[in-house]
Design brief:
globular, Rossmann fold, alpha/beta, four-stranded mixed sheet, four-stranded parallel sheet, 17% strand
């Protein structure tokens, strides 16, 4: 995103939790005063999340709120006070499906989706009418951002390089690239968009996605839906027995992951180069 901003003639400053090359400010969104990094800026982009898969002691909503909602409200309230005029929040395509398919009851069943919806609602309320906030609803994102890879690429890379069989269930997902996310975010800043913006370059079955990651060098077998449902149901039962929860509830996750999580219409922009960046062979 910084590269795209600078290519278009803008000045960008960056903040992150940890110091590393390219980070201008070390900043903890849950505790530090956002105004010290927002002063003099026109717009702001925020990405924050928590691990939706990790089981935590019940109830998990307060912890998820501290990680995913409170920092968004604090940042956009401070941005409004500093006179910023545009903002972007990195969200999840689960909120797209929540709007499109309310019968899935995603917000009711999954704390992570609930918090994604609430961070958008409360962040926009804190920003006020003069600071429109676009929410980018992101699927799987391939490609590098500087030296950073997707946080899920490591386990998939090790699996597709191993001798273990490759298998995929029914269903699939929308995918995009880091470059497209960056360009869409900058477009939203420049236009002062306050829209929900679902992003997809291609819609892939899980089997096709795994085959591309493996560079089509190994067969991908069918994983029976009954096996997926049984495994996730067992995970849900274990969490219930140990009084734990995760952001995506495994008791209902089979209905989600065995579906076509497709965003329409996709742009049709190729993702193969970004896949190779994420999984170099």
């Amino acid at each position: 995103m910084v590269e795209v901003l600078r290519e278009r003639g803008h000045t960008a400053t960056t903040a992150a939790r940890s110091p590393r090359p390219g980070v201008d400010h070390v900043f903890e969104a849950k505790s530090d005063d956002p105004r010290r990094i927002l002063s003099g800026c026109d717009g702001v982009v925020l990405a924050t999340r928590t691990d939706e898969q990790k089981p935590l002691p019940k109830p998990i909503y307060p912890a998820f709120r501290r990680d995913m909602i409170d920092p968004v409200v604090r940042l956009f309230a401070a941005a409004r006070e500093e006179g910023l005029t545009r903002g972007v929040l990195m969200g999840s395509y689960y909120t797209y499906f929540d709007r499109l398919l309310p019968q899935w009851r995603l917000v009711e069943r999954h704390t992570y989706v609930r918090c994604r919806r609430e961070q958008a609602q409360e962040g926009r309320a804190a920003a006020g009418p003069d600071l429109p906030v676009a929410v980018l609803e992101l699927p799987f994102v391939f490609g590098r951002a500087g030296d950073r890879l997707p946080n899920w690429s490591g386990p998939l890379d090790r699996w597709t390089r191993s001798r273990f069989p490759l298998a995929a269930p029914a269903g699939g997902t929308a995918v995009t690239t880091a470059r497209n996310v960056a360009e869409t975010a900058v477009d939203a800043l420049e236009s002062r968009s306050g829209d929900d913006i679902p992003i997809a370059d291609e819609n892939l079955s899980w089997a096709e996605m795994i085959a591309r990651i493996a560079d089509h060098k190994r067969p991908v077998r069918n994983l029976p839906s009954a096996v997926v449902k049984a495994a996730l149901s067992a995970g849900g039962a274990l969490q219930k027995a140990t009084h734990k929860e995760s952001g995506v509830n495994p008791s209902y996750a089979a209905d989600l992951f065995l579906s076509d999580l497709f965003v329409e219409p996709p742009t049709g922009r190729p993702v193969d180069a970004a896949i190779r960046e994420s999984f170099p062979r």
